[in-house]
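#random but structural
TW: two for the price of one
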Amino acid sequence: GRLLDHMRQGTVNFRNLEVLVLDEADRMLDMGFLPDVRTIIKALPKNRQTLFFSATLSGEVKKLADEILTDPFQIEVAPQGTPAEGIRQVVYPVDSARKRELLVHLMDQEKMSQVLVFTRTKHRANDIAAHLTKKGKRVAALHSDKSQGARTQALEQFRRGAIQVLVATNIAARGLDVKGITHVVNYELPEAPEDYVHRIGRTARAQGTGDAISLMAPAERGSLKDIERLIGSKIPQVLVAGFEAKEPAPGKPAPAGRKPFQSPRKKENGWKQTDFKKRSKRW
């Protein structure tokens, strides 16, 4: 925002700019900064070097990378695909329409004290927060539509224990360090398998223990397979009496509109890829 102000006032000159660095690009997009990023990039010299850093490379992040990078060389630092040992993982198959009921049921049965719930969309985060509030839970939502002041207040209340549940989009998946989170709940499985590892890593901090719970609709089975392939192990599935999934499973193994997870070693979309060690030897 500050850079855009200088651009409007004519107090910044990009004529001699040689290098553009976009760090944590996925977080910038998740926070709603994509239009601002595009505006700034259009004002920069075409003849430049661009360095693009992101924990994940899918959806809008990949689209932006394709827009601004020319003949890019992709350097892969091996993702942290193994969750911390202290995290107990479990998947609960359930129909989409009954996820809210099951979430409340599990919170009451397991006596969850400090819970971080992840959703794919801001609308869903607001919906879940409102539902849990009606059920007597102390809840706040955290996503890019909230002001910076509101986000800061929600995090502080969560840290102090003034609220029991924080419902968030991936904006909170990385960089969030709150001691004492007992449970991470994936209300919806993430699109990118790497995001699953980032999400559940918010619990079991400092060699502690914690629970990672995923509510999986039949249409999300492909996402679960992608996650299990990334972490190299199967996640136990538990059926809760009265909440058995009845929706028909999709014909394809992955949700429509999303390609199945592929090993980062594969060449894709013309990008030249390598791992960090191989690339570092050539420097």
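TW: number two ↓
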Amino acid sequence: MTGSASPHRARVTLLAAGLLAASPAVAETRAPPGATACLGCHDACPDDPTAPPCLRRLSADVIAEALEAFRANRKAGTVMPLIAKGFSREEIGALASYLGRSEGSPR
């Protein structure tokens, strides 16, 4: 019985190690509060200049700068100034990091 328990224990140990190693990566990809609401208007990417900007095409820095400008009333908009005022700088950073494309990677 000892011989059969050892391979099982090794598999369980490897599985547990894999889950522990993956935990930070999963946490990093979890959507911050508000992100899914952003995608309601900004996920479609039509070739229409009057449509809301497609966030998948923008970098995190560009998104953060726009949200900060809306928040400080330096940029005009219909609903975005009101929405941006509801987020702290930290929340804006988290949203931008999650929604923006990484440098060099199309999203």
